[in-house]
Amino acid sequence: MDAAIASAQRDAEAAAQAAAKATKQYIEWTEGEKAVIRALKRVGEIIASRDFLDVSEAFIEAHKMEFEFVDENRLEWTAIHEKYIVLVDETLTRLAKDVDMDELMANLPSFMAGGAQEQDPATAIHE
């Protein structure tokens, strides 16, 4: 029993340290980096949403018979893929009206190159 309590205390201390580290890192991120994180989280939520999945699944259902399992890529598949890219872009634009895509695209290069490579503070406590 004492070993279990000691283990739980160690786990709690480790979680507190991870949370403190994540909070410190989040505070050190620039506003642009924070904006990227918020926008990407929102885009991730949208991609996982039933609305987005319904659109994607309907497209796949409508075009699945045009594909076959072969080693080569047929030219007509490229046209279908390009239609899917347009559909995804339009769907994201429609569903992500609350995401400032211009701000995201402006801040994304520095985010990718910068110091915001630490783990997301929302998940860091679960290391």
Describe this structure in words.
The protein is mainly α and 127 residues long. The protein is built from six helices and no strands. Helix 3 packs antiparallel against helix 4 (75-95). The model has no long low-confidence stretch (mean pLDDT 79).
Distance between the termini: 25 Å
Task: Give helix % range.
Answer: over 70%
Let me know the largest β-sheet.
none
| Structure annotation, total helices | 6
Say how many strands there are.
Answer: 0
**Which residues sit in consecutive blocks of at least 5 with pLDDT less than 50?**
none
Shape descriptor? elongated
Radius of gyration using CA atoms only: 21 Å
Mean pLDDT over the full residue set? 79
The proportion of strand residues reads under 5%
The helix/strand order is HHHHHH
The class by helix and strand makeup works out as mainly alpha
